[in-house]
Design a protein that fits this description.
It comes from Acidovorax facilis. The protein is mainly beta. The protein has one helix at 306-319; strands spanning 3-4, 16-21, 25-26, 32-42, 80-86, 89-97, 99-104, 109-113, 117-121, 126-131, 141-151, 162-166, 173-177, 183-190, 216-222, 227-230, 239-246, 250-252, 255-257, 261-265, 271-275, 281-288, 296-298, 301-303, 339-342, 348-351. The protein contains 1 helix and 26 strands. It has a 7-stranded antiparallel sheet, with no helix packed on it. A 6-stranded antiparallel sheet has the order 3-4-11-6-9-12, with no helix packed on it. 44% of the residues are buried.
Length: 359
């Protein structure tokens, strides 16, 4: 890819510290551990909520092929991720299209999508499944989501696990019109944004709930030609990644970006973002002050030392993190395209089938 900077600005402070082309997994900075963009063009579904096409030629159980525009992942009938454990961090799942069925070892369950965000604090240990049921038997079942892993500081790695839903219609948004009337819409999943309503509360033990964490998760939609100022972060040591993943071209301050890329942007300054292309631009922003602690990771466990990783593995073998209360490893929550959440020990929360942004 290429980054161009006008000669007049070449000796001035430039916003982009580093740029990297986007791949299956996107590079992250402390306090984030992982970011994946799943964009699957699933076909019509069959009676078992799987693809109504042959799948025998795929590596069932570990299909990340992207063949025909979609993958089965770890699913063998329904695409997705059957029951698996986590300890020591958080998962944030932002669904742009389609529906996900969540089940976990707490007994919690949910079906969510269309802009909804699920936030799980794994803490001392949780087992969950994330399945992608193909409910439509006559038309394609597109699914698009971000899966983001946010680290926990050492003092919170062994907190009780926690599950919450941020419903699309409750997530605050800022709609900004520039001098020419062109709109930029910012969806505020986490982190205060000047001019936007207050964000919803992350889980209580999250690094995003600590004021010093300066965590933000925003998505941006810029109309062709639109300009919007990405405000400086509050902390001097805060790190920020700007992922440009939809659109023709983007200008960050004086620098032009002509390919989809992960951009490490200086967070201590305001920078004007300009959509210089002819189609809409979309970006994801992940920012936070680094936790700054050692990271030891083995698959789904993220701790501070290798001995803690061994302890996590032994604890899981011994306790299964509380056990699995579901009859299958890949539960699917019925045939209706409904949105709901059932929290441990609470009544089921039902949401309208079709989410309306900002309602």
């Amino acid at each position: 890819m290429s980054l161009s900077t006008p000669a007049a600005a070449s000796t001035a402070l430039v916003p982009i510290v580093r740029a990297q082309l986007l791949g299956p997994q996107w590079p992250t900075l402390d306090p984030f551990l992982f970011c994946a963009h799943h964009d699957d063009a699933y076909p019509a579904g069959n009676a078992a909520f799987g693809p109504a096409v042959p799948i025998e030629d795929r590596q069932i159980g570990s299909d990340f092929s992207g063949k025909d525009g979609w993958s089965m992942y770890h699913g063998d009938t329904v695409p997705g991720f059957p029951g698996h454990p986590h300890r020591g961090f958080e998962t944030v799942t932002l669904v742009r299209k389609g529906l996900i069925d969540h089940s976990d070892s707490l007994g919690a369950a949910a079906r969510f999508g269309g802009g909804d965000v699920q936030w799980v604090t794994a803490g001392k240990g949780i087992v969950h499944s994330e399945m992608f049921p193909l409910l439509n038997a006559t038309e394609p079942n597109p699914l698009e989501l971000f899966q983001i892993w946010l680290n926990l500081p050492a003092k919170n790695k062994m907190v009780a696990p926690h599950f919450t839903m941020l419903w699309n219609e409750r997530i605050p948004r800022l709609v900004h019109h520039d001098a020419a009337g062109r709109a930029t819409t910012v969806t505020v999943v986490a982190g205060a944004l000047p001019g936007a309503p207050d964000p919803l509360s992350p889980p209580p033990e999250s690094w995003a709930s600590q004021p010093e964490g300066d965590v933000a998760i925003w998505t941006l939609h810029l109309e062709p030609g639109a300009e919007w100022t990405l405000p400086a972060a509050k902390g001097e040591t805060t790190q920020r990644m700007l992922y440009f993943f939809v659109g023709d071209s983007l200008r960050v301050g004086p620098q032009d970006v002509d390919r989809h890329a992960a951009l490490q942007v200086r967070a201590t300054e305001d920078w004007t973002l300009t959509n210089t292309g002819t189609t809409a631009v979309e970006c994801l922003v992940l920012q936070g002050r680094p936790i700054g602690e050692p990271v030891a990771q083995y698959g789904p466990f993220v701790m501070n030392t290798q001995s803690e990783i061994m302890q996590a593995m032994n604890d899981y073998r011994r306790t299964q993190f509380g056990g699995w209360p579901w009859p299958d490893q890949d539960p699917v929550h019925g045939t209706e395209a409904r949105r709901f959440a059932r929290y441990p020990g609470q009544a089921e929360e039902e949401r309208p089938a079709e989410a309306t942004a900002g309602a």
